[in-house]
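User: My collaborator sent over this chain with a note saying "see what the structure looks like." That's all I know about it. Can you take a look?
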Amino acid sequence: MVNLQDPRVLRTRQLIREAFNELLRSKGFDAIAIKDIAQKATINRATFYAHYEDKYALLDETIEQAFLGMIPEEVMHAREFTGEICGQLILLTHRYIVDFYRICRMDSKSIAKIVDEKIKKMLEQTIESIFLKEVNHQMAVQHHTRILSAMTGSAIYGAAYSWFRDGENDRIELLVDIVRPYVMNGLDLYHK
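Assistant: Without extra context I'll predict from the sequence alone. Here is the result:
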């Protein structure tokens, strides 16, 4: 196990991630071999495997770091799921989808599915953490919170992805105007 606090380890992991990101832009995920990542990062394959199980683990970390890095402080520390927070999550999700699909060559359905599932899961976890701050942590409520988080995250992700796929990317405020009332009205109905 590597010591994630060691500056050498942090630097090596950064080199690996940078090499991987460059290769994603030029080759696409399916065409990337561990040998390619190691060569571009100027490390050997054994060093790569000391840090990551495989390229899927590296992809998972890359997606997670990028998504978490885009979440505004206001959303991270939100104690209530307001219309403003909902709007920010819609914008964030759309921006992440646009960035990831434009920057990375998404020529593989398997990578697209992995990326989509990871984004959905992280969005759901972000929403759930806000919901849990609003309610007490009784087990029954937590179960409902997971369901509400899944539904809310799915609505936001599905709309943002459809907006991207349909090429409506220059009218992002309209996306928020359409999706936010839908999400917030659904949550209001549940809370009544």
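A starting point for your reply to your collaborator: Residues 61-191 form one domain.
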